[in-house]
Hints:
The complex is a heterodimer. Chain A has one domain (9-153): START domain (Alpha-D-Glucose-1,6-Bisphosphate, Chain A, domain 4, 2-Layer Sandwich), CATH 3.30.530.20. Chain A contains three helices and seven strands, in the order βααββββββα. Chain A has helices at residues 19-27, 29-35, 140-153, and strands at 9-15, 46-48, 55-61, 67-78, 82-90, 107-116, 119-127. Chain A has a seven-stranded antiparallel sheet with strand order 1-7-6-5-4-3-2. In chain A, α1 (19-27) crosses α2 (29-35). In chain B, α1 crosses α5. In chain B, strands 1-2 form a two-stranded antiparallel ribbon. Chain B is mainly alpha-helical. Chain B has a single domain (5-108), classed as Winged helix-like DNA-binding domain superfamily/Winged helix DNA-binding domain (Arc Repressor Mutant, subunit A, Orthogonal Bundle), CATH 1.10.10.10. Chain B is elongated and about 75 Å long. The interface between A and B is large, with 43 and 41 residues.
Amino acid sequence: MDQLEERQIEVSRTFExxxxxxxxxxxxxxxxxxxxxxxxxxxxxxxIDLRKDGRHLWSMxxxxxxxxxxxxxxKEVVPMERLVFSDGMSDAEGNFMGMGEGMxxxxxxxxxxxxxxxxxxVTVSHVGYGASAEHAGMGWEQAFDxxxxxxxxx
Amino acid sequence: xxxxxxxxxxxxxxxxxxxxILARLANGxxxxxxxxxxxxxxxxxxxxxxKVLERAGLIVRGREAQWRPAKLQAAPLKEAADxxxxxxxxxxxxxxxxxxxxxxxxxxx
Lengths: 154, 109
């Protein structure tokens, strides 16, 4: 098996835009509301208290009219570099509600910003899932790829 | 203390020995002795891993008193894989919207 290292679920994209702009659209509510969420969703409300232990609270409106709130606190805010925050479903006041049966209350998200040649690469990773001690040295994607391949043969 | 099932699955998969155990069980059920062989591990150590996998619902143990074979259960793995896939897809869609938004605001300048 592969060398153990701390790996997370990672999704990355390079945008044709400067670093400062990417940082702004991620951290300023007026911008954040305009793009955050899957296709067909809108973010009708958004509060961001951008500092360590500051809270975020945003809502998402699904295409079929369901409104959900998400909240969490910032663990790290490194301007132009990194955001680390907890994120989980909540009520309109920002109390964690849990995300359904078998799901945890919240997870930790890390967003990194890397600039090169006028473009900016943003990487979102899901850091751990519950207590991080359990997940030290885990390669989820590797585990799934390998197991999926093995199970597909069976 | 109850744990959410996805966390149990991810915890179980966090260990490379347990991932190898699951991969081998994909080819059919095996006893603790058979599972211990390639790892040069003690039987109690293997049993400990099997308990974690069993608690996560990833394997079931047979009832035959002497050898209690371990058998792979795919459902929790599928649930976890589906979750990963949905998470990834949601982010890709958000990124599509971000890309379009960035183009809009840059064109306005």
